[in-house]
Amino acid sequence: MDILPKDMMLIFIKIIIISILCDHYIIQCTDTEYHLNEHNPLLGRHPENLEQNVYKVKKDPLEINGDTFFGVTKLLQKLENELETQAKEENDQIIDGVNKLVNKMMQRNVQPETTDKVHNSTIENTTSHPLLLNEKTVRNMKNPERSEFNRNKTVMKIPKNDSIVHLGTSMERESSGEGNPSTVGGEVDTTTVVNQELFHTNTISENSDNISNPLKQGSKSIHVQPTRNKITPSYTHQRDAQKRGIEWFSRRIPRIFSDLQIKSQDNSSLCNLQYILYQTSLKNLNVWAVKMYDASDTTPRGFMVGNSYQLGHFDECIAIREPSHGISGKHCLIETRLKFNKSHHPTDQNQDEAIWNIFDPVDISEHRLPKDSLHLSLCIPSGCTFRDLEQSLRIVVERQHTDVKEWISFRVTPDMCFAENERKISQQLIITCVVFVGFALIVIAVTVFHLLTYEPDIKSLPFFRSALLSFSMVHNFQKLFSGSNEELRFLHGLKFISMCLIIMGHRLFYYFQSPVLDMQNMLQKFLEYDYILVHFNIVDTFLTITGFLTFHTLYTKIKKHGITLIPNAILYRWLRLVPVYAAIIAVLAIIIPNFGNGPVFKLKISREALRCQQNWWTNILFISNYVNTHQSCLIQSWYLSVDFQMFLIGLLLLYVISKNENLGIRLLYACFGMSVVIPFIVTLKGRHWGILKLTTRVLADPIASKYFNEVYSKTHNRASCYFLGMMTSHLCFKLKEKKFQFTTKQLFLNSIVIYILMEGSSFYQWLFYIPDRPYYPLENALYAAINRVMWSAGICAIITEFYITGFGFISPILNHPMYVPLSRLSYCALLIHTQVQLLTIAATRVPEYLTYKKMFWEVGGDIFVTYTTATILYLFVEAPIGNLVDLFLKKERTRTKS
């Protein structure tokens, strides 16, 4: 039926009355500091965990129980009674009109936004406000005393001296309320609004013993008892920051990227056009644009446990092609730096741990995983450069609130972006590939020739034919498996086992440079109680063995040929080491960067390649441990430099010993004593640690470590191991002359002493990893002086017992013939294994979850691939050039004699 004019007039009069009353109420509330964050639990979805975050406000007479709206409710109830006689659809129209009016009036007071769902929360109907009319509100108006707002009240007191945590500012409430004009009877009305999706202060925890849970299951409302508070002078500024929103950064960052508009900073029409086409195509849901969006990942996940790489889908991105406009995908990593200041972010003292305490930058706490940076991935059109992306991100950040600009920044470098169409074939790459392919063809051709004209002994052939057959893989393969000195065969087994342990240790290094899903858990597993952690003295085994072999093989020759042998020995060693060394450097500097891809491939490979391109000459001159040490090419290059430098010193000592044995041996012992004192002085004076502490910063880039450059890689700090090896060789000569033999009892006791020496010196390192343990200069200096000596002394004892008597049931194990070829491949394996490991982490597509089982499985793969590749390198490079060097030096010696 039609609405009569009189009825219509009555309706408008009552609506005007409602408006006046609500306006009057709003005016009364203007002095109230009623604040809801950008997620309002009254006007949207409810937060999921009501106990998680509690935000305190100054006061608000509006209690969330329906009593405050009693006047409005009474009028609405009367209006409903008068309209009951009208048709249902007319009733619905009027109710909708009143709903819109009330909603509009409420927006004049607060501007709500969407919130999350609350379990057992104050408001059950998440699609409407308590003021808005619906079937339930109509029922409550009829029976106010049965309303859920009045039926269920939960009283919660706000603790004194509490605070609000937000980005950039803080609000502290003091306990005193004297002199505050807003206090009534020394108390201030407050209302607590709970929101879980904002920041994660955990002010009220479900399992907290200090603060009771104010929201039990079944509660429908929150009523806060008034407390006494005093507002700080900076409240206005803090209130503004509060209105801006208290929010965890992983929710803010995706919105920053949603506002991103990539524009070329050099007025490149290609980038601007391609990005506009991308946005338009994405709105139209074109497949290529959706793939580009789908391949990106700008939401941090697992950040609290150390997952700092969000790699997206690299292969999906670079495979994108849009031929009509020449668009292809470019995958970019974006380094996001977080600049949290703990002093500006106080937290509730009842918390177990302040959230800001885990955001220390890298250089603040060496025992903590740095969480001040992460890498996000974005797939963009290939026409846009890394500069376009970086500048566009800076512009977006500048548009954010001040607090956001203070704690976040973005960085993009050329090594962080990859596109298939950006690959360039350089002249260096062509020359290097031609040299390698040519060398390989020569080896293959000579091998075929050797098979057709088989010569069992090429040494008896003419010089030219012997030189040609030096490239034969048949001859070199036989040489690899040929027999060795029976007295020293045990050294082959010792070298191979030590090499495997070194490969395992370097695999641990590279784990910490790769994207890991749970880095925090990995740190606890591998660094707190890890056996490998305290056994990085294994590399000293090689220095000890090298010192032993230098004395053993060259002493009699120098004694026979005199000083003339020294230049030839130096040249021979340099020519044997450099070819393989140069080949590995060329592969890393030129070839690897152009063959391979992945989201972190350029980021990981380019740094190492650049170091080799700039400092290759320090490597082949074996001075990389003293020149440009912070940019050394190959992490293991320091060892080769130390080994070669000690070889020069060892030759001079051998010459003195060959001329005057007593004087020479005394000089050798004096050098050993100096090599023990020097690390003590260096450590004490420089206040260094006694070991290379494998902190997160060192593991991320050991070459850039101060201790690595100033102490760890220096020859004068490692010479003691080499001198001990030479002293052991001299001792073995003397014992052999006296035909001394160890008894079984002596071997058993020596084994116990060896174990105590080696393991005791290693396990003591754990003391240096105890967090907050004081630094004792004398302790560190003493340990730096004797640590390597004790380990090398154990190795020397093993060598002596094996050389003189044997070591019981262990002798057949280390003397097995299978170790002979594996030991001869040790030099190639030492150079290759780090490249194998570097390539595996550079090709990573997704963060890995690491366990001990997986580590041993991957170490097994490293060993297999390393020695397989080392065999190829030996047959194609090391053995052929070594044969040529032997032939030329032999011919030179023959000419000299004649």
Automatic annotation (TrEMBL):
GO molecular function terms listed in the Swiss-Prot or TrEMBL record: acyltransferase activity, transferring groups other than amino-acyl groups
Alphabetized UniProt keyword annotations: Membrane, Transmembrane, Transmembrane helix
Residue intervals of the Nose resistant-to-fluoxetine protein N-terminal domain: 268-419
Transmembrane segments: 429-451, 463-481, 493-512, 532-554, 574-592, 638-657, 664-684, 747-769, 789-813, 864-889
Top-level lineage group: Eukaryota
Pfam families found in the cross-reference section: Acyl_transf_3, NRF
PANTHER family per the UniProt record, alphabetical: NOSE RESISTANT-TO-FLUOXETINE PROTEIN N-TERMINAL DOMAIN-CONTAINING PROTEIN, O-ACYLTRANSFERASE
Protein name: Nose resistant to fluoxetine protein 6
